[in-house]
Write a structure and sequence with these properties.
Length: about 130
Amino acid sequence: DQWSTGGNMTSCKNCPDGKGVEAGQGTSEQDCVWKPCPPAQYLDEDSGCQDCPADQWSTGGKTTSCTNCPDGKGVEAGQGTSEQDCAWKPCPPAQYLDEDSGCQDCPADQWSTGGKTTSCTNCPDGKG
């Protein structure tokens, strides 16, 4: 991760943070390139590795963007390393969470406070 112009130089110069060059290949700072990013990050060509925004994921490397989670699913910023990290978001009131298809409306005469509940509750007898 160092470079040198050669000649009478007695030491090499370090590449900027986040950049590197293979041993013996760096003859100027321009030879320093961004290192691969870890999972859950993408490569910004101007500033280096950045966390993926909320509801997006990345396997890392030199990808320049993150991938959106499927509709209805999300992940915290900088935490998504694969689509499997995307989890169902909480449902609004009057809906329940179906693990296969996401939030669904409660059937007639049933209610729910929402969240991650997986079923609705029957209304009291005589009420609907």
